[in-house]
Amino acid sequence: MNPKLKSILEDVWWNIGIVCTSIFVFTVFAMSAPDLDRAGLGGLANLFFPGLIGVFTIIIYLLTRIFANEWNWIITLAGVVFMAYVSTMLFFDRL
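RE: above sequence
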């Protein structure tokens, strides 16, 4: 792997920044769902689920940094993909 790319992938602040950016993007996406005004308290899931998934991703990422210093970016990637999946399901009212 390219050493410059590897240093970016292994950097803690890049990974946390990607997760925080994903939280913002997918929260905005989930909150722009049609018929959200008729969802009642169920609409709160669209607001909180992307953030909760992001916080858990950051916690798991930081815990795995304690035990292993390589390949931790896979945790970030998995968290962002799962956040995208949940946000899409919330947008289409399938969750």
